[in-house]
Amino acid sequence: MTSVDHTFASMGTTARVLLECDRHDEAALERHARAIRAILEDVEQALSRFRPDSELSALNRDPRTAVPASPLLRHLARAIRGAGARSGGLVDATLLGPLGAAPVRRPARPHPARAHALIGVDAEGRIVRPPGVGSTRAAWARASPPTSPH
Question: The pTM is what?
């Protein structure tokens, strides 16, 4: 059994890529591990709300209700809407402000605004949302199954 094990800083924590296979050699597994790391770095670069140069930060600053977006950001918008729908509104990546101020000692309830349901992607590939609605990558990461962003 061939294996590679990579640990690196990613998204404010430590990521680990552990690959084991009896059909591929170490060089092939190293290529796959580097590709996985590159994907995580691309996601962090594009979707971090802590990076003023990220596409997510630019979207959150943009006052328009329809904003051109990359395939990855469009995937995020669809995931936000889907996670909100699947959780009955308990997962809502649009609620950074209210969540930061909410007490932790009460049972979770959906936010009455249900802003996640208003996020989408139009026929021109733009993110559409009501004025003032932003989003975070963190809720997407907790709620969205891993899929291709394209």
Answer: 0.71
